[in-house]
Inverse folding.
């Protein structure tokens, strides 16, 4: 691997579940098939691979593009999109059904069996951009948070954390500097001033890795869902609506396209490289 670019970074995938009938199927594929499939492919160059189940969707969570299944986190040593990594002894098992369960394509577009694609079938599936579905949001970030805005010094003994992770992408045609000015001068100060919000962190999205349309990812921590609602819905009514708004209320962006989110705990039993033991069914 000496000729590969050493580039530590992390990534976040927002996994939605289009309807509750799909949840058992999606969970079975993720834990029975996808975890071992993934580990067998990227274990040499990934140091963390974890699933964070999202808490139940909060009131008005749909307009934040809330992922109703989980957030998936990787820590990479090299770019997963390097073309040399497309040569796999075994292709990834990624049936079209998964994209339907996640809402990336409508059920009417459901194909039979494996996707037809050269190279990494999983990456090919993730590039699906069906006009009737939701984009597959797969964001690469710097390994470490870039902005420590509020709550520095907080420890695990300071209480439970309802960690609201949110990715935002400014609409096409919006000047990035203008969008960032609004985000950090109009929106963030409202959250920073709220006592219910205990922690704020932010990093830019590395769009050059896979062409993600997102620009920033944020984590805003609360004690519980009620604290989230008070700040992100009620207090957010004071945030100035930008000229480029795609909806009338904060976050003013198109759900699942320009904003995706999910609230997670600070612990998960699905830290897969460390504790995955296979798909052992309960009896």
């Amino acid at each position: 691997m000496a000729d590969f670019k050493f580039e530590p970074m992390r990534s976040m995938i927002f996994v939605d579940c289009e309807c509750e009938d799909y949840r058992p199927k999606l969970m079975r594929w993720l834990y029975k098939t996808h975890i071992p499939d993934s580990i067998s492919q990227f274990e040499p160059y990934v140091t963390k691979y974890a699933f964070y189940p999202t808490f139940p969707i909060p009131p008005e969570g749909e307009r934040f593009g809330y992922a109703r299944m989980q957030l998936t986190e990787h820590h990479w040593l090299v770019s997963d999109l390097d073309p040399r990594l497309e040569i796999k002894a075994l292709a990834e098992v990624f049936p079209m059904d998964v994209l339907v369960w996640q809402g990336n394509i409508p059920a009417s577009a459901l194909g039979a069996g494996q996707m037809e694609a050269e190279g990494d079938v999983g990456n090919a599936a993730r590039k699906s951009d069906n006009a009737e579905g939701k984009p597959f949001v797969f964001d690469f970030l710097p390994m470490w948070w870039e902005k420590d805005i509020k709550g520095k010094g907080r420890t695990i003994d300071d209480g439970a954390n309802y960690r609201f992770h949110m990715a935002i992408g400014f609409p096409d045609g919006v000047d990035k500097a203008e969008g960032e000015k609004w985000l950090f001068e109009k929106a963030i100060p409202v959250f920073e001033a709220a006592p219910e919000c205990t922690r704020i962190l932010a990093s830019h999205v590395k769009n050059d890795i896979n062409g993600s349309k997102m620009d920033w990812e944020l984590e805003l921590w609360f004690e519980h869902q009620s604290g989230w609602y008070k700040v992100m819905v009620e207090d957010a009514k004071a945030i100035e609506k930008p000229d480029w708004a795609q909806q009338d209320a904060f976050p003013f962006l198109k759900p699942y396209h320009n904003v995706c989110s999910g609230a997670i705990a600070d612990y998960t039993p699905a830290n897969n490289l460390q504790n995955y033991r296979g798909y052992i069914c309960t009896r």
